UniProtKB/TrEMBL annotation:
UniProt source species: Cajanus cajan (Pigeon pea)
Name the UniProt record assigns to this protein: Sodium-dependent transporter yocS
GO terms, biological process: plasma membrane pyruvate transport
Compartmental location: Membrane; Plastid, Chloroplast envelope
GO cellular component annotations of the record: chloroplast envelope; membrane
A Pfam family: SBF
PANTHER family for this protein: SODIUM-BILE ACID COTRANSPORTER (PTHR10361), SODIUM_PYRUVATE COTRANSPORTER BASS2, CHLOROPLASTIC (PTHR10361:SF62)
Keywords: Chloroplast, Membrane, Plastid, Transit peptide, Transmembrane, Transmembrane helix, Transport
Sequence similarity: Belongs to the bile acid:sodium symporter (BASS) (TC 2.A.28) family.
């Protein structure tokens, strides 16, 4: 998310190294955008409170408009990418590959283990498995920036897992949850393709062929993403607020376990091969899911409303967990001799 604003700030410096007067205003403007964006956890908490105690204030947004909002969120991510980003994936096969495998091998198995250990009911189990099979969320880019991780790597990990979700999310959900409830893998794949792949590719193409246009709006896309994420969070919580208030801890604890274990495993497993900065990045990307996508798929393809609850709860849990971890790491400097695992 922040990569583009950093590049733009550099671009405002003239050849002599001095910053033009006009850049001062732009820098201040970007500083405000950055501040509002880094307060993402605060906005999510406020959205969750509104969703629980005043659900009618946000649930007016119909399912089709929710889909539109999620698609626009993916478009915002696409606008920050170019084809060069995908070539960078090829230059970093091991680093990106480990992040991808963690997202679609370790995380789903972790979700399945929690389901079996806690003996959750079929709909809640299905919802938690679906959540664990979703790609990394855009909010991980913000948390990585705050934790002094590698933002460029975070963007690549999020991009790869998002594109991979078209196949991996429906396939893994079918394999792990198909024994609990009927799972329409083809329907899940089509929905993921429509709401994830199409808007992301449209954003990439716009950035590639209309760079002047995208440069003008790129500084505000992170804030737009935060606003949309907060709105989707409030709507998700609002639609299942009665269930959350009635069952409470039974719904929250499995999701907390999933995210806490993912953050811890992502970091310590990465430390076996990677340096501190890369390990922080993989940990945050591994622990923060695209909960809005999970909620969208649960609402559209499963009749029982309980299937959507884990994804709704996850929006708040991953925002709080990711931001807390980012603040913890922000106060711990990266070692000067840290291993460089990423090729630009």
């Amino acid at each position: 998310m922040f990569r583009n604003s950093q590049i733009l700030c550099k671009a405002t410096t003239d050849i002599s190294g001095d910053i033009p007067e006009s850049a001062g205003e732009l820098s201040q403007y970007e500083k405000v955008i950055e501040t509002l964006t880094t307060l993402f956890p605060v906005w999510v908490i406020l959205g969750a409170i509104i969703g629980i105690y005043k659900p009618t204030a946000v649930t007016w947004l119909e399912k089709d408009l929710f889909t539109l909002g999620l698609g626009f969120l993916m478009l915002c991510m696409g606008l920050t990418l170019t084809f060069e980003d995908f070539r960078r994936c090829l230059r970093n096969p091991w680093t990106v590959g480990v992040g991808f495998l963690a997202q679609y091998l370790i995380k789903p198995l972790l979700g399945f283990t929690i389901v079996m250990t806690l003996k959750l009911s079929a709909p809640l189990a299905t919802g938690l498995i679906l959540l664990s099979c979703c790609p990394g969320g855009q909010a991980s880019n913000v948390a990585t920036f705050l934790s002094k991780g590698n933002v460029a790597l975070s963007v690549l990990l999020t991009t790869c897992s998002t594109i991979g979700a078209i196949i991996m999310t429906p396939l893994l959900t079918k394999l792990l949850a198909g024994q609990l409830v009927p799972v329409d893998a083809v329907g899940l794949a089509l929905s993921t393709f429509q709401v994830v792949f199409v808007p992301t590719i449209v954003g990439v193409l716009a950035n590639e062929f209309f760079p002047k246009f995208t440069t003008k709006i790129i500084t505000v896309t992170p804030l737009i993403g935060v606003i949309l994420s907060t709105l989707l969070c409030a709507i998700s919580i609002g639609l299942v607020s009665d269930v959350i208030k009635a069952q409470g801890a039974q719904l929250v604890l499995p999701v907390v376990f999933l995210h806490a274990a993912a953050f811890a495993l992502g970091y310590w497993v990465s430390r076996i091969s990677f340096g501190e900065s890369t390990s922080r990045t993989i940990s945050i990307d591994f622990g923060m899911q695209s909960s809005a996508l999970g909620f969208f798929l649960a609402q559209k393809h499963f009749k029982n409303p309980l299937v959507a609850v884990p994804s709704a709860v996850s929006v708040v849990c991953m925002a709080l967990g990711g931001s807390a971890l980012a603040v913890f790491w922000r106060n711990r400097p990266i070692p000067l001799d840290d291993k460089n695992d990423f090729k630009e």
